[in-house]
Design goal:
Helices cover about 45% and strands about 10% of the residues. It has four helices and three strands, in the order H-E-E-H-H-E-H. The longest helix has 30 residues, at about 25-55.
Length: about 200
C-alpha cells in the first residue's frame, strides 16, 4: 500500500475525523446577523408601505382594507407611537435615535435568538420612525411620522409602531422568564433531601 503524504491532500478532501474544513461562524456573529436581518426586513417594509400610503391615499379619508376590521387612514403624526405627545417631536427624535444607537451597541453581546429577534424589531421600529423625523416635513428632527393603519377603537399607527409593540412584548416575556442576552436562564435550586431519622 502506497504511503500518502499530507501534501497529496487537496482542498476538497475533508480533514481526518470528519470535521469541516471551514469553521462555523461564532454564535455572536450569527445572532448579530439575525438581529440585523430582522431589522432590515422590518425597516424596509415600514418604509415601502409609508411611501405607498403617501402616494395612493388621500389624507384624512378612510379606505376599507380588511372590511371594517382594518382600514387605511393617512395622517401625519408629530408625536410618538399611536399619536402620543404631539407637542414633543424633538424629544421623540432624540429618544428614537438613542434607541437605535443603544441596540447597535448591545448587538455584539446577544447570544439568544429570541433576544436577537426582539432587538431587531425594536431597532427597525425606532429607525423607521426616526427616518420620518429627520427626512419628512416640516424640518429636520421635527418631521411628522406617516401613520396609515387604523383598527376599531385604536389610534392610527404604522408598521414601525407595530414592530416596537411586538418587540416590547417579546422582551417583556424574556425578562419575565429571566432569559439573558447570552441566552442563559436562572437555574432552579433544589433543596437537598434530608435523611430519614
Amino acid at each position: 500500500m502506497d504511503d500518502v503524504s499530507p501534501n497529496d491532500l487537496t482542498a476538497a478532501d475533508p480533514p481526518a475525523g470528519g470535521g469541516s474544513a471551514v469553521p462555523a461562524p461564532p454564535l455572536a456573529r450569527r445572532r448579530a446577523g439575525l438581529l440585523l436581518g430582522v431589522a432590515l426586513v422590518a425597516y424596509a417594509l415600514d418604509q415601502v408601505t409609508k411611501v405607498l400610503a403617501v402616494a395612493r391615499l388621500e389624507p384624512g379619508v378612510q379606505r376599507p382594507f380588511v372590511g371594517e376590521l382594518l382600514q387605511l387612514h393617512l395622517i401625519r403624526n408629530p408625536g410618538a407611537a399611536f399619536s402620543l405627545g404631539t407637542g414633543s417631536t424633538v424629544v421623540f427624535t432624540v429618544v428614537q435615535t438613542a434607541v437605535v444607537v443603544a441596540v447597535l451597541v448591545v448587538a455584539r453581546r446577544v447570544r439568544s435568538g429570541a433576544w436577537a429577534v426582539g432587538l431587531g424589531l425594536l431597532l427597525a421600529g425606532a429607525a423607521g420612525n426616526a427616518t420620518d423625523r429627520y427626512l419628512r416635513a416640516p424640518s429636520v428632527g421635527r418631521g411628522h411620522v406617516v401613520d396609515f393603519l387604523e383598527l376599531p377603537h385604536w389610534p392610527i399607527f404604522n408598521l414601525a409602531d407595530s414592530s416596537v409593540v411586538v418587540a416590547a412584548v417579546l422582551i417583556a416575556v424574556l425578562g419575565f422568564r429571566g432569559t439573558t442576552l447570552e441566552g442563559r436562564r436562572p437555574q432552579r435550586t433544589t433543596r437537598p433531601e434530608t435523611p430519614d431519622a
